[in-house]
From TrEMBL:
InterPro entries according to UniProt: Cupin_1 (IPR006045), Germin (IPR001929), RmlC-like_jellyroll (IPR014710), RmlC_Cupin_sf (IPR011051)
Family, per entry: Belongs to the germin family.
UniProt keyword terms in alphabetical order: Apoplast, Glycoprotein, Manganese, Metal-binding, Secreted
Protein known as: Germin-like protein
Protein origin, superkingdom: Eukaryota
An example Gene Ontology CC term for this record: apoplast
Length: 130
């Protein structure tokens, strides 16, 4: 991801692998893909929040939501271009609630460089006890 407009700072993002983004503090984050192998979502539990990006598509993440984008075809490198809704964009570390957002266990395992069993143990440990 490269941001080159005045007031923005360059940010490198390799989405040949899975990438779990942090919660962003600006109004909007947009991602556009010139490659047809990207997907983006901020909560896969709701189908309207998921998009398989085709060439030229754009996906906008609302402020404050944990989101991710990934390359669904590892054999084809993917490129994504993003822009922040603020010239002073900042990030906040992902809270433990990321494990309750409905993001697929495979994506979380790859994003955190672990296995699915570990992700499921983390989810179980964070589950609300009723």
């Amino acid at each position: 991801m490269v941001l080159s407009a005045s007031g923005n700072r360059p940010v490198d993002l390799d989405i040949d692998a899975w990438c779990l983004k942090r919660t962003l503090q600006q109004r909007l984050v947009g991602i556009s893909s010139p490659s047809p192998t990207c997907e983006a979502s901020f909560d896969r539990a709701y189908p309207t929040n998921f998009k398989a990006l085709q060439l030229g598509d754009m996906f906008v993440f609302p402020k404050g939501l944990v989101h991710y984008q990934s390359n669904v075809n590892a054999k084809n490198p993917a490129t994504a271009i993003s822009a922040f809704g603020s010239a002073n964009a900042g990030t906040v570390s992902v809270p433990s609630t990321v494990f309750a957002t409905g993001i697929d266990d495979n994506i979380l395992a790859k994003a955190f460089k672990t296995d699915i069993g570990t992700i499921q143990k983390i989810k179980a440990g964070l589950a609300v006890k009723g």
